[in-house]
Amino acid sequence: MARINKISITLCALVFASLTFTPLAGASEQARPSAVQKTHLAKSSERKSKSTNQKTSTKSSGTAKSNTKKKTDKKTSASKTASSSTKRASNSAKASKVASRRTKNSPAKTASLAVAEKCTVRKGHKSRCVKAKEGKPETLADLHKARVQKAQKTAMNKLMDQLGKPYRWGGSSPRTGFDCSGLVYYAYKDLVKFRIPRTANEMYHLRDASPVNTGELQSGDLVFFRTQGRGTADHVGVYVGNGKFIQSPRSGQDIQITSLSEDYWQRHYVGARRVMTSKTLR
């Protein structure tokens, strides 16, 4: 009997234990997923926070890098601008130095050009030196033109000095006065190679004088007129430019400058001759 009771007690205890621990086991089994879920949630949140932190740090580092790059670019551009301005300043300084050197050297060069001399030595004679400008050589045409211009100026000066002096038939010097051909003779006798005749008609037919059209007249050309019907030309003057000529007209009048366009002289005009050329000058 006692053995039966022990068995029953044991069975009751087992039944009670099974009833007692079964819900707990179920609860624990139900509770496990929630814990696992919490763990997963915690891990995912940690991952999210880490990724967020990483993104934030990446953005901040990118921003910092861009700011640093901008600052570096600004510094580089500033340094480039400063270097370019420095180069410009140095170039301008060099240019000013070169200009100052040229300015300093130019008077010396000019002086050397002015002082340069060419000397010719002949056996048995003293050396002869002539001042000559160095540099670009003048052409032969330029030299001839300069000689002719110089001769024209000399002739004009001699003629202008006689203005106001009285007409004198046969006169050919400032002491006695001049007739028309005598005035021309006085102005050109020492400037040309050939002999200047003493009459207007001979001058007009002079072989060494070349004909000149009215529109091509130059200072120093001779202009001829036929006023009294004697020969081809019986009166002569010298063209001075601007449509005017200098002449010793006739008795009772002084040496004067007259316009070639006046009606009287236009009616009696017969032509012009050029006596001063590069070939005829002394």
Question: Can you tell me about this structure?
Answer:
It is a single chain. The chain is of the alpha+beta class. The chain has a domain at 140-274: Alpha-Beta Complex (endopeptidase fold (from Nostoc punctiforme)). Helix content is 55%, strand content 14%. It has five helices and ten strands. It has helices spanning 2-115, 140-160, 180-188, 200-204, 263-268; strands at 117-120, 128-131, 172-173, 177-178, 210-212, 222-225, 235-241, 244-247, 256-259, 269-274. The strands form three sheets. Strands 5-10-6-7-8-9 form a six-stranded antiparallel beta sheet. It has a two-stranded antiparallel sheet with strand order 1-2. Strand 8 and strand 9 form a beta hairpin. Helix 2 crosses helix 3. The longest helix has 114 residues, at 2-115. It is elongated and about 195 Å long. 15% of the residues are buried. Residues 17-36, 56-61 and 103-115 have low confidence and may be disordered.
Estimated structural class? alpha+beta
Name the CATH homologous superfamily of one domain: endopeptidase domain like (from Nostoc punctiforme)
Which residues form runs of ≥5 with pLDDT under 50? 17-36, 56-61, 103-115
The gross shape turns out to be: elongated
The protein's oligomeric status is single chain
Percent of residues in helical segments?
40-55%
- Percentage beta strand: 5-15%
Spatial ordering of strands, largest sheet: 5-10-6-7-8-9
Q: What is the makeup of the main sheet?
A: 6 strands, antiparallel
State the end-to-end CA separation: 185 Å
Q: Over the alpha carbons, how many angstroms does the gyration radius reach? A: 61 Å
CATH class of one domain: Alpha Beta
Please tally the helical runs, counting DSSP H or I stretches of 4 or more residues.
5
How many beta-strand runs? Answer: 10
The succession of helices and strands, N to C, reads HEEHEEHHEEEEEHE
